[in-house]
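Sequence design from tokenized structure. All designs in this work follow the same two-part layout: the structure record, then the generated sequence. An example of the structure record is given first.
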């Protein structure tokens, strides 16, 4: 009996560090992930993405490009694609938002050899795919060595840019953050390799 209790307790340990707001969103993340990406897709990384992007809060335009919601989907980029499929995708209390998020993730992971690459595509475009092609590898470390991006402004004031960061550092740290955050919501084995 004690062994059963300990096993049960261990199965809930990842959620002990989880964000309460994210836990409340898990049923919607799970449902949309299964429907759009399939039952074998590790939905916990999509929860990790929501925590990485917005700390699981409904927010508008953290990035200045009109991004909205938990996953910070860029409306100007995705609205014409998403609206015919999910007409209410941009509404705060719509389940369609989670389906739209899973759809964008599906498009991001197309033609990638590992999930980490797809999440970096989601964050910063397809340059990471080119870098991995040059590296002839799917390994994060090897692809990172091929990154030759410039500094980008990350903080603008009235007098101009006051803080720059390297775009390689930003994009390559993103997949690590999604992975770490996703571990808090893990509910099984990765049937699709992340790394």
């Amino acid at each position: 009996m004690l062994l059963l209790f300990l096993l049960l307790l261990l199965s809930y340990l990842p959620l002990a560090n989880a964000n309460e707001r994210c836990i409340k969103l898990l049923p919607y993340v799970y449902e949309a992930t299964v429907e759009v990406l399939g039952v074998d897709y590790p939905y916990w990384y999509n929860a990790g993405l929501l925590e990485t992007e917005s700390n699981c809060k409904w927010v508008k335009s953290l990035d200045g490009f009109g991004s909205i919601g938990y996953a910070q989907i860029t409306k100007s980029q995705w609205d014409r694609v998403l609206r015919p499929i999910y007409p209410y995708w941009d509404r705060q209390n719509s389940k369609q938002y989670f389906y739209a998020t899973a759809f964008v993730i599906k498009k991001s992971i197309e033609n990638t050899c590992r999930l980490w690459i797809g999440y970096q595509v989601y964050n910063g475009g397809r340059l990471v795919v080119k870098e991995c092609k040059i590296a002839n590898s799917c390994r994060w470390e090897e692809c990172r060595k091929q990154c030759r991006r410039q500094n980008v402004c990350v903080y603008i004031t009235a007098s101009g840019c006051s803080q720059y960061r390297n775009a390689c550092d930003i994009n390559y740290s993103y997949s690590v953050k999604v992975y770490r955050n996703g571990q808090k919501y893990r509910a099984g084995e990765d049937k699709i390799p992340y790394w």
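DSSP finds nine helices and four strands in the chain. We note this feature because it recurs in several other targets discussed in the main text.
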